[in-house]
Amino acid sequence: MQIVIHQTDHTIGNFTQIYKYIENLTRSEDFQDNIHIFPETFLSGYPLQDLVLQKTFIRQYHELLQALRDLFAKIKLSDKTALLVGGLRYEFKDNADIPSNIYNVIYEVTKKSNFNDIYTKCLLPDYDIFDESKYYTPGSAPCIWSHAGCDFGLLICEDMWHSEQYAVNPLQMLMDEANGKELNGIINFSASPWNIDKEEKRIKRASEISRVFKTPFYYVNKVGAEDEIIFDGASFVVNETQVIAKAKSFKSDLMKVEIAKKSKIENLGVAPVGANSWESLFGPHIEKINGKMSLKKLSDDKLDAILGALNLGLQDYARKCGMNKFLVALSGGIDSALVLTLVKLFLKPGQEVEAIYMPSKFSASLSWEISDKLCKNLGIKLHNLPIKFLHSSVQNLFNDNLDPLEGLADENIQSRLRGSLLFARSNQTGAMVINTSNKSELAVGYSTLYGDSVGAISLLGDLYKSEVFALARHINKNFSDIIPVEVIERPPSAELRADQKDEDSLPPYETLDMILESYLSYRYDLPDLLNLGLNKTEVERVIKLILNSEYKRQQFCPILKLKDKSFGFGRRVPICKKVDFNLG
Amino acid sequence: MQIVIHQTDHTIGNFTQIYKYIENLTRSEDFQDNIHIFPETFLSGYPLQDLVLQKTFIRQYHELLQALRDLFAKIKLSDKTALLVGGLRYEFKDNADIPSNIYNVIYEVTKKSNFNDIYTKCLLPDYDIFDESKYYTPGSAPCIWSHAGCDFGLLICEDMWHSEQYAVNPLQMLMDEANGKELNGIINFSASPWNIDKEEKRIKRASEISRVFKTPFYYVNKVGAEDEIIFDGASFVVNETQVIAKAKSFKSDLMKVEIAKKSKIENLGVAPVGANSWESLFGPHIEKINGKMSLKKLSDDKLDAILGALNLGLQDYARKCGMNKFLVALSGGIDSALVLTLVKLFLKPGQEVEAIYMPSKFSASLSWEISDKLCKNLGIKLHNLPIKFLHSSVQNLFNDNLDPLEGLADENIQSRLRGSLLFARSNQTGAMVINTSNKSELAVGYSTLYGDSVGAISLLGDLYKSEVFALARHINKNFSDIIPVEVIERPPSAELRADQKDEDSLPPYETLDMILESYLSYRYDLPDLLNLGLNKTEVERVIKLILNSEYKRQQFCPILKLKDKSFGFGRRVPICKKVDFNLG
Q: Where in this chain does the entry annotate a coiled-coil region (chains A, B) (predicted)?
């Protein structure tokens, strides 16, 4: 008898696919005599948001449950065979229409049990992207699951992260329940979103719990991207300090692991307080480098993990939306060059990517040379669609009918004409436009709404400009300068007027990124930033830009989430507010 | 001694303004010897979302609290004078940076008390737009406030709406606490968002509670719009079944009311269960008209209230964003004609509105005539900015460099060119572009992303097309056909190809709106809709359109919320999902 960890990726609402996965499993040779464990909410998908309330979803979910019960009613399971499957349990009011309670549970399937729920998630996270209290009712009882002579303590995702933030302590409840008994291990069923620090935190916490119980910790995690949220899988088993098995990151996987011998559980004492995930939102990724506060540098390992995450994020979004063509607008700058390179590197058989370059009279010849060289390096056809004539047509239209286009109006129209042409091409070919904005420009609103900020999904929206450069250099190291070095070395420019440079309007990116990361973590106030040696005028200007550009971010596409604190669903700020209140 | 109800509207984060309001009050002749009551979270603003965690916000909020305490330390209050002010109370962890608990409280100011919190909100709503569990910690104790011989039971907003949905019952706690005592009334401090059914529900519930206690119910509500959310004020006092005082709707107001004599509270029994606000999300506004299920008709009173709400919503958004110019693109259709009319009707002294008409070769001459007539009726200058030439320039560009523009690509480019021109004008004049989409087209994605869907804020995004017509007719009744009747009578068309009509792609709006309202309420499944006598093919098509257009709605501007269930922050649905899961 082994534990089989099913690290799966299914589209939300694709109940047929989920049924088939289980049906196929029942026919596989590994099926009988093993314990099969599945991620949290395997049956329903996650995060569902309001779908969980929609009558159609509820009906189909229950049809799935019934179909699975019917399936197992016909199958003769051996004494040893078991499935532990994450799902939802609904309770309804009298009128049977409105769910009164929805629980996040583990269903058990054995010879004697056909989808009975045995454990309910106790800790419902509400920070950042999480809204679980909005939809779910927490459990309040621990579970030691006994099967074929084995005993396991069960936890669901956040339950392992007990901290002072929560009134209940499921880990302590499990420790108290286990006291005096013998366990073969702890199993945690997760749908745990990835970010660059998440995997090591999980293993550290699991190891901490394993050491307390002196028994292995089995961690099964969902894989796959759901809009902006990336689930990395990376399921693992840790025995005290040693990771004894590890599944793939960013890919579906199936992993068989031995069941450890029983350990006697006694004198456990007080549950160790977990690293508080909520608090990590307040921890800016900054550090002192050469005596100066800077954004924390991303290690090669982390850059590789980011590549894995972006790959899964893009590909799952495309697959789940039914798209297999991509379209990127090249400007001759680093962001679009990196995005095109990423899409090309991530391309699967049968998929295509196309690039368009749309120069204006302000576009340097270097911009064309870079774009041309990049596309040659990548083996991608580059379309040239100059906007000079269109731009002057618009200028004439305004001259003749309204007022002459000048300044910002004349800059932005170029960007918006490009956005329009880009989406015209997208309409022609059915290609998905990949956004090319980075986190720094998103933060300060240094982009044109409906112009360069357009797209279906953003790959770089959670990477500061200096991290965009780092990722480009990292790729060049591994792919022999596939991104022309000229684009890494030239000073960034929007090229919307003559001799424009980003640094005319913004602090140098190194400083800007440091201010942004500090401020966006919630934790740094103006006086704190000045204490770090930053310039008051500069800091005030940046904070004002952040506060004033909320309206642009609220119309932005989903951004693949790579950090603790990202723009998107997990960061919610009103548009209307007094903008200089932080500058007192 | 009277109760003075302060129905106020302040910009979030404008602490100076809030301080001055109180400072001015202390100098007013009504100040001494009265009880001044303020809305929930008067001191901090609401909804704050993540601002509540931002260190700068927290610091400045505490500076305000300190400044107010300093102010009252210097003022000699009479025995009778009191203020009850909604605000936040923060608790911090050891490191003093991260708030460990944030409470929504009522602060008391009297001769002996200088901003002491006396009551904490017990029920934290999490449905729809609400996320209060995400940020706040609930209270658990009732409060009977005694002052100068008077006694009042206190509640904050949702506390009065006890229902089965909540584990605690603050109304019951207050009833138990009051038992055997004498009360002068119940005071509810609210920041209660408006929707078309909300006011009557509030009064009904307050009256129900007043009848139980046999003492008046004082309801003080915030006024003002915060992005999409509109707070209507409409503070009131109800004594059993009689409304004895009522403040203005959609405007700041100050209302003095008498304090009732004491009532002996005894034998109250069990608290009446409230109308469950959460459940109302599941209640579609549909009814049987002439034997056929239809969208519920809006009465004249409700249409008037919608006008008040839209007026406040637009004006507060503009004021809080510092804008005083508006810009509307006219198409010759009903939506843009109504939007322009609304903006003009809402205009304040010193504000301006401008209209642009951007015809293509598919624009009927009637579209120009309607736009021209409307602008003459409204006294607005109409700019004509034909896109014919630009459109053919783009066609040539694609012909010469890529593939000829055809079909959808050729339709959408017209809409996007208009979006670009519109925002170029906005950049020129600093005017705010008002979006012209309606709820029906938003629901089915019958609009062009970055094209006709652009704008800073949407006035009609919570009104179905048939309600748009009803509102236009309502205005025409009161303003002698200010909107040309031709636009109400012509069949709706996007005019992006020859002889295009909305009904070529969509069911008649009457049917469409009925399906949309039913489905969007969560409560109607395909079989339910078929039971209502609707056509299966039609219903399936509409549901598919809703599910497939989520990506467009996620890039949409804030929509002024008029209904229980609206697109926007309160409706959260993943983009990636299997789209035909509802059609099983």
A: none
DSSP result, B497-562? STT--HHHHS--HHHHHHHHHHHHTS---HHHHHHTT--HHHHHHHHHHHHHTHHHHTTPPPB---
Please determine whether the domains at A2-270 and A298-506+558-575 fall in the same fold group of CATH: no
Secondary-structure class of domain A298-506+558-575 per CATH: alpha beta
Interface check for A582 against chain B (CB to CB < 8 A): the answer is yes
Confidence grade of residue A582 (pLDDT, cut at 50, 70, 90): very low
Fold of B2-275: Nitrilase/N-carbamoyl-D-aminoacid amidohydrolase (3.60.110)
B121 among known catalytic residues: yes
Q: What three-state secondary structure class fits A73?
A: helix
Look up the ipTM and state it. Answer: 0.96
Which CATH number fits the domain A2-270, given the four candidates 3.40.50.1100, 3.30.300.30, 3.30.750.24, 3.60.110.10?
A: 3.60.110.10
Question: Does residue A209 surpass a pLDDT of 70?
Answer: yes
What does pTM read for this prediction? 0.97
Per-residue pLDDT reduced to its tens digit, B151-185: 999 999 999 987 777 888 999 999 999 999 999 99
| C-alpha A185 chain-centroid distance | 29
Interface of B with A in 342-371 (CB under 8 A): none
Angle between helices B407-429 and A407-429 (to 10 degrees): 170
Give the list of residues 6+ apart from residue A322 with CB closer than 8 angstroms, or none.
none
One-letter amino acid identity for A33? D
User: Number of helices (H) and strands (E), helices first, in chain B?
Assistant: 19, 23
Whether A336 and A436 have beta carbons less than 8 Å apart is answered as: yes
Helix (H, G, I), strand (E, B) or coil at B331: coil
- Name the residue type at position B254: L
Q: Taking a C-beta distance cutoff of 8 angstroms, is the pair A245, A217 a contact? A: no
- The domain segmentation of chain A, as residue ranges, is 2-270, 298-506+558-575
Chain-chain contact of A55 with B528 (C-beta, under 8 angstroms): yes
Using an 8 Å CB-CB cutoff, list chain A residues near B449.
423
Q: Which residues have C-beta within 8 Å of that of residue B24, sequence separation ≥ 6? A: none
Indicate the class that CATH gives domain B297-498: alpha beta
pLDDT in tens, B344-378: 999 999 999 999 999 999 999 999 999 999 999 99
**How many Å is the Cα radius of gyration of chain A?**
26
Q: What is the pLDDT of residues B427-467, one digit of tens each?
A: 999 999 999 999 999 999 999 999 999 999 999 999 999 99
